[in-house]
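In the lab's daily routine, each protein ends up as an entry in a very long ledger. A line of letters takes care of the sequence, but it says nothing directly about the fold. The fold becomes a row of whole numbers, each drawn from a learned catalogue of backbone shapes. The protein below has been through that process, and both of its lines are reproduced in full:
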Amino acid sequence: MAKNSVTLIVPILNEEKSLPLFFERLDPALAEIKKSHKSVRFTLLFVDDGSTDASALIVQKAKLKQAKIQMINLTRNFGKENALFAGLNHCTTDAAIPMDVDLQDPPEVIDQMITEWRAGTDIVDAKRASRSEDSFFQRFTAAGFYRVFNIFSERPMPENVGDFRLFDREVVTALQQIGDKKRFNKEIFSWIGFKTTQIEFARPARAAGASRHSFWRLWNMALDGIFSASTIPLRFWSYIGFLIALFTFLYLIFVILYTLAFGRLVPGYSSTIVAVLFFGGLNLLSVGIMGEYIGRIYAEVRNRPNYLIKSTYGMGED
């Protein structure tokens, strides 16, 4: 199969400050890549995820010598996971590379990705060499998430690998078949299999603007990832229920023996309240976990589309 055309999929949301810097850096980087990969052709596919600033206008006015520009405008903000899915669904080239517009995914790394791809790899993961630019709290929570996720998941997810990857056409076709309503793309990328290679790169700070990933949003994404990847949390509460039932049975035997030996056992008020609150809390927690799964079942049953397209640009059916 020919390996000549590559689509860079770039989800954007209110990135009018980052876009000029992105174009300024991307065009010469692609020119350098074409020196070593002369036959490669690039398409730049933006997915505007409901921007309210001038992002869409900046994209439409941009002129690049090294890449064709296309854009999909969604009707509202559907989230980055769905915006990336929209880009993959409309990718028609031999390979796709999702990347961020804030230049934390350096375009110069694409050269090495294409080299690995043309050598026969289906997926090329770009792994952060370190997280030294992150705070201690960010590094600690990220390491904890990967550890917990890989315990629960059917297939482990590589640490410190984001959406910045190269997918062969065969992989893109496979990803297009997965219509999860609650998407956690990193888990899906690990689940599909295929021959995978990792390359490392130094991830710089954002070129402009600030990250929109607050702690609460990252926490919700982590829960989506864990609940999407496995049913082990449900099974875990089956084990907890068994252990509590076993403990209750043993305590019942103790009460009976104690009463036969020493007479009536009068329980204390404090211990009763503690027991009620403890088991009540466990019940609420288990119901909450079941609710997470039921909510996902509800989303799947409704079968609403992951996104809606308002308009396109540069795609032949504008």
User: Anything to note?
Assistant: The beta strands are 5-12, 41-48, 67-74, 95-98, 123-128, 161-168, 196-201, 309-313. The longest strand covers residues 5-12. The longest helix spans residues 269-302. The mean pLDDT is 79.
